[in-house]
Amino acid sequence: MSIETELKLHIASEKTDRFRQHPLLQSAIHTHAPQRLYNTYFDTPDHALLQQGVGLRVRCIGDKRLQTLKTAGSGLGGLHQRQEWEMEIVEDTPDYSLFPEGALPAWCSDKKNLEQIQPLFVTDFMRTTWLIAMKDGSKIEMVLDQGEIKTQTASIPLSEIELELKAGSPETLYQVALTLQKTVPLKIENKSKAAYGYALHKPIPLTYRKAGIVALTSDMTSEQAFIHILWHCLSHLQANEDMVLYGEDIEGVHQMRVALRRLRSCLSLYNTLIPKKKLLKLRTEVKWLTQILGIARDWDVFALSLQEMQPFYKKSLSSNELLDLQVKVANFQTCAYVTVRDALHSSRYNRLLLWLGKWLTQRRWRRKLQDNALQRLDSPVSDFASQILELHYQRVYQQGKNFAQLNSEQLHNLRISIKKMGYGTRFFTELYPQQAARYAKNLSRLQDELGILNDANVASHKLNQIGLNKNASVRHFLNGWYAHQQSAHLARLETAWQAFLEQNIFWRNNTDE
Fold first, then answer.
1. Averaging pLDDT over each range in 191-205, 317-331, 463-477, which range is the top one?
2. Structural domain spans, the chain
3. Which class in CATH covers the domain with range 2-201?
4. CB atoms within 10 A of CB 207
5. Helix, strand, or coil here: 235?
6. Total-model pTM
């Protein structure tokens, strides 16, 4: 058994000649001539092996047959790590007796279950391989695969680059990818060939993904938790790419935006441990993408609001006014989505993902930190979590004093602080499993109530962008609508604030213990 570490990148077929001429490849210490690889993937018709996190294939290379069993492992930031067993066989079908005990799922011990496993799809491609030696002693096997993935009824093209680590640190994979991307447009590829094959065999609708739980443990250091949280945010971001690029559910953009906000909140939470100047490049690039997604999200929310109001403003406005407004909003939505999709296809976005992957594996923030700062990074995360949550609680508490007298700007600033505290609470939930989840839910409720007060400002800004006359009847209607909403929510808002003040401050209890 071996553990495979590789970085996958998509390359457009028309860019492969430029890739082959790259100086890195020209300086390779060894090059294998193109070789045809024909791989058949096996599973049950309902993908039972896949559901157990197992991949099974037989590879044909000329007259040679190799069977390979891989665990699902992890694929993040293009980096794939998994366990792998590979052995030569005689036939074109797997020889299960050769796999070590425990490698296959337990249900495979029943011969009847094994008989359900059959070929589902194939990958048929030409592979060219280069071995690259880096100055730091790292060795990377670089391959270019071009061909197709096919079932009995469908096929899709295959064109990708794999960088497999043979010696050295994973950060070298990211550095090589960044070097290549300076001259060759490359995209992070988080899906394996098998994942594409399974989707081709049994297509499933695109879905958006929520963040889920951040699985921190009490034995982690503050730094380990920081790295884990950022990888989690990156996973959340990339899990929604397909929905934004190819789907229709507006929740995809929302979730990508949330992922970036979570990432930015993590950086903010760690300001006391990792100075801002060490995060400047990351903050700049994340802000760029957040703003693009934010514009699309604002148009989505405004369009949804108009739909909710429709039964009411139909009685007050002419059909021409309504139709004109809806058409203009839809046009702005479309333009915003074009901008978002262009950004996700851009080299700048993929450089951000590659650079972030390198930065997290390299841990550059440790450079030039004083000993006391390094000690704090290496301290238990539970200590840091309690301190940082207390700090943010005090900020929220101070901003919310004299709550009933706060103006709109003060309420907006309070909402931002509550949002940051909410993200922090959810990051550290697993450290306080019986208390933090409810606290985070109450924060979300308070944040939502404050958000309604901000909707009128967003709507006014959107109407200005559309170019709607200040005296237009539709503008007056919307102003009245939002004024009514704000009035209705003000009483609920004060109740939510009091509930926030009265709830148990769980991290203090944790510190006392």
1. 191-205
2. 2-201, 222-507
3. mainly beta
4. 13
5. helix
6. 0.88
Calculate the alpha carbon distances from 5 to 28, 148, 191, 289, 385 in Å.
Answer: 20, 23, 14, 28, 32
Amino acid at 129: T
Q: Please tell me whether residue 335 adopts helix, strand or coil conformation.
A: helix
Does pLDDT of 272 surpass 60?
yes
pLDDT one-digit tens code per residue, 224-250: 999 999 999 999 999 999 999 999 999
Residues 6+ away with beta carbon under 8 Å from 395:
417, 421
- 510 pLDDT more than 60: no
Per the model's pLDDT, the better-predicted residue between 176 and 496 turns out to be 176
Q: Do 125 and 162 form a contact (C-beta atoms < 8 A)?
A: no
CATH superfamily of 222-507: CHAD domain (1.40.20.10)
User: Over the stretch 488-503, which tens digit does the pLDDT of each residue have?
Assistant: 777 788 888 888 888 8
Question: Do 2-201 and 222-507 come out as alike in CATH topology?
Answer: no
CA–CA distance, 182 with 204 (Å, rounded to integer): 35
d(C-alpha 458, C-alpha 488), whole Å: 18
Q: Is the pLDDT of residue 395 over 60?
A: yes
Alpha-helical segments (H) within 16-66: 16-20, 23-26, 48-51
| Residues in Cβ contact with 136 at an 8 Å cutoff, skipping those fewer than 6 apart | 168, 172
Q: Whose CA is closest to 74, among 234, 242, 257, 247?
A: 234
Contact indicator for 497, 403 with CB cutoff of 8 Å: yes
What pLDDT sits at residue 513? 42
Number of residues that make up the chain: 513
**DSSP letters of 465-505?**
HHT--TT-HHHHHHHHHHHHHHHHHHHHHHHHHHHHHHS--
